[in-house]
């Protein structure tokens, strides 16, 4: 039988079969060992083939995975030499960020954008909690919005409590399989509950001491928003470790940096210290966002 993985709890997977029935499946041992660098051989979004274990119930064994069209991947938090696939076969990433309670750094944003660009996945940046910002923070919001809109990304500044803002997101994800991601506490579950009032996902207040979000989602799961519209929800991400790109290739996935990188004197320019580097020159002349260049340097350093 064939189906799509819609939930992953680690060792068990919920598969929505082509017959529109949900099956609780596990994997064969050889499938788990097929790629020793992955912490999860199967991810939510995967199209899989499986066999029913018993004709009387809905348990099954996953036997193989169809080739993925794309996936979002990051370094494992606990095992730096291994990787974790967040989700696969997705048509859009909703990156939810906030300027306060908690604050999302531009380095975090750019790390996710880098990996999405590498696998040709469009990203929509959603700046949530706009109803909480003072005048200074609203100015920061507009600056952030301008940086990424000028690069070519769609940016929505919203309040998850505003129905008109939720409608904007609904139009963006219509008839797509999307992934929603970001730090814990940025409002991902609240947004999902607003998009489909039947979901009733658990939400949590911020930690009073740290002013950071606490996990309300504990495993990856695909939710149906309406007919032909789905969103994959995953636990909040604290850090996003990028996989090992070659240094000279990192700039290719920074849309704004790449247009200057091709003009550099040296083909293998790392844009860190070389003479006649057009990227460094663009930063010095304020043609390139300093925060984006700092993110680029941060990623190069972390891979080195």
Descriptive key words:
304 residues, five-stranded mixed barrel, globular, Rossmann fold, two-stranded antiparallel ribbon, single chain, alpha/beta, OB fold (Dihydrolipoamide Acetyltransferase, E2P), Ribonucleotide Reductase Protein R1, domain 1
Question: Could you walk me through the main structural features you see in this protein, from its secondary elements to its overall organization?
Answer:
The chain is an alpha/beta fold. It folds into 3 domains: 2-65, OB fold (Dihydrolipoamide Acetyltransferase, E2P); 83-233, P-loop containing nucleotide triphosphate hydrolases (Rossmann fold), CATH 3.40.50.300; 247-303, Ribonucleotide Reductase Protein R1, domain 1 (Orthogonal Bundle), CATH 1.10.40.50. Helix content is 28%, strand content 24%. Strands 1-2-3-5-4 form a 5-stranded mixed beta barrel. A two-stranded antiparallel ribbon has the order 6-7. Strand 6 and strand 7 form a beta hairpin. The longest helix is centred in the middle third of the chain and has 17 residues, at 135-151. The chain is globular, with a radius of gyration of 21 Å.
